[in-house]
Amino acid sequence: MSFYWLLQYPDWIFWAALPALMLHQAEEYVYPGGFREWLNRSVFHSEDSGQPLAKPAALIVNIPVLWSLFAVTAYIGGDILWFSLPVFSLLFVNAWFHIVMSVVYNDYVPGSYTSIIVLLPLTLYGYSLLLTTWQTDYAMLMISIMAALVAHIFFISILRGRLKALQESKASE
To answer: What is the average per-residue pLDDT within 132-155?
Structure first.
């Protein structure tokens, strides 16, 4: 059997993104877990490992929001590439976040293994596949990566604002 169908029907890459995301989140939150606590303590330097990213917020962002977003992306695939490519690029940016943080902190960051073994290879292969099948070009690829980067920065800035508000309310007590 030939793998020609992988090139003939490149939308499979968007379907592969959802289970890759789920596997990555399992490493972050289930086994070995600890991503939320690590993020709160190491990145935000919070005294409370449960804030600014609280359990309910992590649950809402990861399951109903991201799983739904990736499921919709899998369904529409390359038909609406201006939407699906930036969503797919969230995996690429997130993988690099974990890898860079592991290097910066010289330690394991929950989610790093799946970032290196699953997310980075999947996204790089996906980008290559979409470029070689002429579904996208380098300009759209760069724009999608930038959009995913902006989304990550936006999420981090929301958490920074939440932490600042929590610290101010604690100081006024």
So the answer is: 93
- Which of 63, 87, 110 minimizes the C-alpha distance to 15? 87
Q: CA-CA-CA-CA torsion for 34, 53, 100, 74, nearest 10 degrees?
A: 90
Q: Are 29 and 135 in contact (CB under 8 A)?
A: no
Residue 26, by phi and psi: left (phi above 0), alpha (psi -120 to 50) or beta? alpha
**Residue 167 CA, distance from chain mean position:** 27
Q: How far apart are CA 159 and CA 51, in angstroms?
A: 9
Q: Whole-angstrom Cα distance, residue 20 to residue 115?
A: 9
Residue 121: the pLDDT is: 96
For 25, phi then psi, to 5°, come to -70, -30
| Torsion angle (degrees, nearest 10) of CA 134, 139, 142, 147 | -100
